[in-house]
Write a structure and sequence with these properties.
The chain has 330 residues and is mostly helical. Among the domains are: 1-145, Serine Threonine Protein Phosphatase 5, Tetratricopeptide repeat, CATH 1.25.40; 247-330, Alpha Horseshoe (Serine Threonine Protein Phosphatase 5, Tetratricopeptide repeat). Helices cover 76% and strands 0% of the residues. It is built from 19 helices and no strands. The longest helix has 14 residues, at 30-43. It is elongated and about 85 Å long. The termini are far apart. This is Tetratricopeptide repeat protein. One of its GO terms (biological process) is UDP-alpha-D-glucose metabolic process. TPR repeats lie at residues 48-81, 182-215.
Length: 330
Amino acid sequence: MTAPTDTPSATPSTPPDLDLAVLHHLRGDLEGAEAGYRAVLAASPDNATALNNLGFAAAQSGRFDEAVELYERSLAIEDGATARLNLGNVRAALGDLEGGIAELSRATELAPGDPTAYDNLGQLLMLQGRIAEAEAAWRHALAIEDGPRLRTALATAVAATGRLGEAAGLLHQALTLDPQFGAAWAQLGAVLLLRGDVASAGEALANAKRLDPDDPGPRRHLALALLSLGRTDEAVVEFGELVRLAPDDATSRVDLAVLHLSAGRAAAALTQLDRALEAGPDDDRARLHRAFALRELGRLAEADELLQAIADGDGEQADRARQALVDEAS
């Protein structure tokens, strides 16, 4: 879920002390803002806006339980859309997706013209796998406020239903609105990969990488596209950058190791596999290819011992390990 796009609220009738606290908040001075809100509440304990804003500051500081209490106090005084939206986001951050969806649904009822509530609702519904409802929420948001981010979000739901052509169309529309929107390029690349248009996918993903070189997602898809295009050396470079950006990404480390093995670089493969196994010691795919790397390095006893251990188990790689042992014996 994206970060809440709301801001601290004020009304034309707010007291000057509250206006000053909001100003601190908008400037990023959370400590000053919290002190201001608490001063307002000391004088007016039932000020729903101050309670909501103090809850927002608490959530920004990671104090989610405190934020829930403050939002609920605000809502007990005044059932406002902003507090409902904020409470929904915090419930989701605490892992309560159902509670978050309920709050955000209420926010859309209270403020049917607010695209943020529909957008955040769509994200939570998507996380729950309620794809049709997520699509409907994002279509509501788009009807209120068009933009590349919402079109990209809608394309995510559309693609999840298998309507890849329609999803690609939405992403092209998003990029017409903003050709520099990296998330749309990344999503377009993923959709084109699924459609089998690997060359176009590679171009889209290269654009996504250019716009956000530190995002590992497009790099992984780009590496896979390059492999499909037979551009193995370039794929190795991308996987290398990927494990640099995401050192705990064991899957990409194993993929990189497999490429090293296929190119005869067993020592480099073994380095990557050992790192992958530090993160997941029971990863049978990493263990199997570690055995293959050990064989290439002439460490046959270690390789056979590892292959036997995999073969004796019931993991996905057990059959391959047994076959490798048979091939060696024959």
